[in-house]
Write a structure and sequence with these properties.
The chain is α+β, with helices and mostly antiparallel strands. It contains 6 helices and 13 strands. It has 2 domains: about 80 residues, 2-Layer Sandwich (Gyrase A, domain 2), CATH 3.30.1360.40; about 150 residues, Beta Barrel (Cyclophilin).
Length: about 250
């Protein structure tokens, strides 16, 4: 698909790179985001990437629309070059996270069903999930909710036929080609495999309330019940802080 620019009212433009979920398309989206950040244009208030596009919010009194369109066209035509420039300026460094997870039992009530559905053992499910370096495609659905991918073909299952009314906060789940972590208690129809003590959204952090950002990578590491309890207390008391989850 040829990139195209769509107008969203007077103060936003969307740059589309594709019409499907695809790592290569998402890589172009991230490259464009990094390139826009490296330009440091006055008047841009937010840049919101998704699987296949990104939306640039701007103040039309501070930034001329035509100028912004010209910049977006140039970026769309040379995303790889612009991405390299952004990386050299320090705006595109990938942040890698290692999140501990307790799997199965009351923390991951769907693990046994997923094992049966895929004809694999629970241990193999855990080992496979923890071997992956998952890309944060986007943040959506809930504040701080990361869509992570992609899962191997054999682990891709449809969402539950009957969603749960309340999924516990910090639940690690899968559906389709994606994995995710619920930052809040909420309804949800994904398969619950485990739970992490990591707090994915901190309303007290005004600069970056969401722990994860599009373009980051995530790996999971299995832990036991005792370690989960200790880490949860350490998070609540401030003895473990965000940087401690960096890989």
């Amino acid at each position: 698909m040829k990139p195209r620019i769509l107008a969203l009212g007077e103060g936003a433009l969307t740059l589309e790179f594709g019409d499907r979920i695809d790592p290569a398309v998402n890589a172009r989206v991230m490259a464009a985001r990094n390139a826009i950040s490296s330009l440091r244009l006055d008047g841009i208030s937010d840049v919101v990437p998704t699987y296949r596009s990104l939306t640039v919010h701007f103040d039309p009194l501070l930034l001329d629309r035509t100028t912004l369109v010209e910049q977006l066209v140039e970026i769309a035509q040379a995303p790889t070059q612009r991405s390299s420039e952004a990386e050299s300026s320090g705006t595109a460094a990938t942040t890698r996270w290692l999140l501990p997870v307790i799997f199965g039992g009351e923390f991951g009530p769907d693990l046994s069903q997923v094992a049966q559905a895929t004809n694999r053992s629970e241990a193999e499910i855990i080992e496979t999930l923890c071997s992956l370096e998952l890309r944060v495609f986007l943040i959506g659905f809930l504040p701080g909710f990361p869509y992570l991918g992609e899962l191997p073909e054999w682990l891709r299952l449809p969402r539950l036929a009957s969603p749960r009314a309340a999924v516990p906060a910090n639940s690690v789940a899968i559906a389709g080609a994606q994995a995710a972590v619920y930052p809040w208690q909420s309804p949800g129809g994904w398969h619950l495999l485990g739970r992490t003590p990591v707090r994915l959204f901190d309303i007290g952090d005004a600069a970056r309330p969401a722990l994860l950002a599009p373009g980051d990578t995530v790996r999971f590491a299995p832990i036991g019940r005792d370690e989960f309890g200790r880490m949860s207390i350490a998070v609540d008391t401030g003895k473990i802080v965000r940087k401690d989850w960096l890989s």
